């Protein structure tokens, strides 16, 4: 994901499944949020600084604001907006 993109941090997430294992920017990631909702996210929209980036990882998910808005992720757990760098 480009570094000049607005991002959103969402706490208490866990990556349950992934497609294209071993590829950081290709495929998708099935993320479970603290309210137990799940959503498939394109890996290309997950920040390189995210603690949640491959199957089995957990912690704070950092995604583009665009995908957070499109998937309505702002209602999932504790959310923090971060401006473009």
Please summarize the sheet with the most strands: 5 strands, antiparallel
Distance between the termini: 12 Å
Number of helices, where a helix is a run of at least 4 consecutive DSSP H or I residues: 1
| Average pLDDT rating | 88
Strand runs, count: 5
Low-confidence stretches: none
Oligomer status:
single chain
Helix/strand order: EEEEHE
The helix content, as a percent range, equals under 10%
**Overall SS class:** mainly beta
In total, how many domains does the architecture comprise?
1
Q: What overall geometry do the principal axes of the alpha carbons give?
A: globular
Radius of gyration: 11 Å
Instruction: Please state roughly what percent of the residues sit in beta strands, choosing from under 5%, 5-15%, 15-25%, 25-35%, 35-45% or over 45%.
Output: 35-45%
Give structural notes.
The chain is mostly beta strands. It has one domain (7-82). It is built from 1 helix and 5 strands, in the order ββββαβ. The protein has one helix at residues 65-70, and strands at residues 7-18, 28-32, 38-42, 58-64, 79-82. Strands 1, 2, 3, 4 and 5 form a 5-stranded antiparallel beta sheet that branches. A hairpin with a 5-residue loop joins strand 2 and strand 3 (38-42).
């Amino acid at each position: 994901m480009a570094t000049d993109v607005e991002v959103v941090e969402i706490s208490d997430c866990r990556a349950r499944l992934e497609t294209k294992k071993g590829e950081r920017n290709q495929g998708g990631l099935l993320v479970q949020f603290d309210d137990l909702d799940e959503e498939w996210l394109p890996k290309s929209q997950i920040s390189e600084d995210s603690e949640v980036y491959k199957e089995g990882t957990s912690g704070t998910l950092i995604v583009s604001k665009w995908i957070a808005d499109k998937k309505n992720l702002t209602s999932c757990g504790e959310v923090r907006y971060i401006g473009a760098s």
